[in-house]
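Per reviewer request, we include the raw input and output of the structure prediction for the construct analysed in the revised manuscript.
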Amino acid sequence: MTGQYPFKNTTIKNSASLPGDLHALGYRTCAVIGTNVARDFAHADEGFDVFIDNRTLKTNKDTETSQASTIARQSIPFLASTPAITQPTFLWLFFKDPHWPYLPPPEYRETFIDDELYMRTTQSLAINEDPNNSIGGIGEARLKNANNEFITNKAYYISQYDAEIAYLDSQIGLILSYLKQQGTYDDWMIIFSSDHGESLGEDNYFFDHGYMLNQEVVRIPLIVKAPHQKACALTTSPVAIFDIYRIIKTLLGQSTTGNLQGRIGPYIALENSAEHEKTGEKRYGGVSEKIKFIYSNTSEKAFFYDISIQHGERPMTLSEIKKQNPDRTLNEARRFFRQAPMNVSSQAELKSLGYLQ
């Protein structure tokens, strides 16, 4: 919403942001959010005429999230309302699925059971002593299915994650179909993205996100449909979530000067959202079109990867790394990520939301 990195600007309050900027341009701004995190921590309700989060959608419990169908049902009446038809409109929909715990609606749970991919990925997982540890196995806190049963088969969890993706696709499809039925689809700028991916066992990291920076976690979709767009194009240059601010403002003919950052030379900066709960390690890095580097704030070890391969990533050889001028790259990264320690109140908020242990 701000074109800024979280460690540079952890809250939308009192800062330039998309809803605030668009509201000033005469847009009616509305958000339908399937969680309470956005309002409580980031003050993401700033600049919105209508802000509906999980308290309104489902329950008063902060730990609950609303499923995609609830958000879709809430958004279509908004799109049908007179203000949305008669004036420029900005609508932000924040879906929480697919996300742990992988619990798609009952009618989707068997969709991918026993298909070809399921049979190839059957693997019995180790149960970690720490119920929240996702490295090298999974903790019992993450093992229960919809029937509160313990499942240790890796393929089962992947099938449920895929089922949640299929379910979300169907709900977004309902919204797009409504716009097409109304004859207004071409008038809308539509942007689809995610806040993170998910590691489904890659790098021995199971059904989690936040600590590792493997490609499965950091490579996410970004699809942009401009109003009245007639042709499609695919970019291979790396882009990031903070680019959404620039994309929208640019397509609207608005200046973005002074509100953009996030690149370390040819790299887009990466950081994990949480320190390792046992070692306190924090990881930083950057990704370009073909190369990714990661370094640790505790060990000061750096790793370079070739990400030009078709799937995943390959550790680069020492001779390959030397060609990348690693000393200069890492020095630039250290300067970029240099920041003041997180204050006590921010730590308390993050802990209450489950992002810190």
